[in-house]
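Predict structure. Chain length: 134.
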Amino acid sequence: MLGRLNHVAIAVPDLAAAIAVYRDTLGAKVSAPQALPEHGVTVVFVDVGNTKIELLEPLGEGSTIAGFVAKNPAGAMHHVCYEVDNIIAARDRLVAAGARVLGDGKPKTGAHGKPVLFLHPKDFLGTLVELEQV
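Prediction complete.
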């Protein structure tokens, strides 16, 4: 069911400062910032060749990651994203196995313009898992 690792997401309190670390200190190629109001974040992607690092900054008062950043003021790993061929089939298989899908269970459009779902971290060894249909 799982495909390749699409990205590892790091929630940060200051996106500009995080971009500088990856671009200026590490010499990485960083995408332009993209606001995703539906998800309550602004994101950039860092190209590391075999996968990507997603840097997330809270967007707006109702940001879903604002509390996470408040608990981790220096920033921290937020989630991992795996690719799947069919997100509905993957969701149905996971739910049948007892996994919990966050939100209403319906895929939303993610930063890459593709359907995504998030799975409860308590069901996956304490790690928030995002699935993205490819």
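Summary: The first strand starts at residue 5 and ends at 11.
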